[in-house]
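This week, look over our next protein:
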Amino acid sequence: MTRLAGEMGIMVWSEIPVYWTILWDNPETYVNARNQLGEMITRDKNKASVILWSVANETPVGPARNQFLKGLIDQARSLDPTRLLTAANERHYADANTQVVDDPLGEYLDVLGCNEYIGWYDGLPEKADGLR
């Protein structure tokens, strides 16, 4: 996929499947995530289409999770210090029109990302017009 993306001029956010409420305290889970991250970066670090390495998707903030992901961020930086690092962070509404990402992991990331489900899980498509 990343080879085709390069041929087509498509930029890729490449992410390992670390999401939601995995077993943050389980050493085997961490070893598995480190292995997947290492394999992904080794495989694709020379592909121009890959512009971001992502270490997680929509993970709830907590001490065990923060330590787990900080370890992955450190590994990614050691394997490829040239690319930006990101994660799809949790977000919440400050008011009806303002979404906030206040994840402490942001201190270690280059790009803060969040998924929006407006028109799917979060109201009708018209809701997007009034958001900040």
